[in-house]
Amino acid sequence: MDTLQKTIHNSEEPVVCRSCEARHGGLCSTLTPQQLCDLNRHSSRKKLEAGNELLGQGELVTSYGNILNGVVKLSKMMADGRQQIVGLQFAPDFLGRPFLAESKMTAEAATDVEICLFPRRVVDRMVSEVPDMERKLHNQSLKELDEARDWMLTLGRKSAQEKVASFLYMIATHIDPENDDKSAFDLPLSRADIADFLGLTIETVSRQMTKLRKEGIIRIENNRHITVPDLDALSEAAGND
After folding, report:
1. What would be an example GO MF term here (predicted)?
2. What's the gap between Cα 148 and its chain centre?
3. Does this model's pTM top 0.85?
């Protein structure tokens, strides 16, 4: 259900934005209270259950959004129907590419997701008018490029165990930015999706998870809940520097 964000008081910062992670660490952190009020007048919050599509590959882009909670799965489909998961986005990431009329990939809620949506025309205008907003988007794009290069190394050179450990380390350090405790989380992807993301078979993913559990690097409960007793040990298992 959409909830219009209309709680504003003159030029002060909108009440609904004050405790928002995206306001302090995301795209909205570049805006003055007045600019934030301007953007807020056009915004809406939306909650989606896991499995729901936010945007389809090839669809016309009508809105962008700040991810407030949850994990978004990005995937690309080939002409013959084969699909590849190409990335994950977490709060307070910005979902979308300003000035891009057509989506190059599918965005789907990997977990239950809450997102703050803005019309494309409004954000495109503000990006042109607010240099700090443009710079923030540029920096996010560079960050995503660096992460893509790191993931190329993971897929191309790391062992199966290092790949699985790298995935778990990424989830542990990104899934809940407001929580300083990175020792426990629920997997946002199924074993099949993890296998797709890592270029492994489901059986290999399961074997490596079991191996990491037997080595005491992780604990697994209910097949989805992961506890990491020592994050440094998981990082070492991932082959990180």
Report:
1. DNA binding
2. 13
3. yes
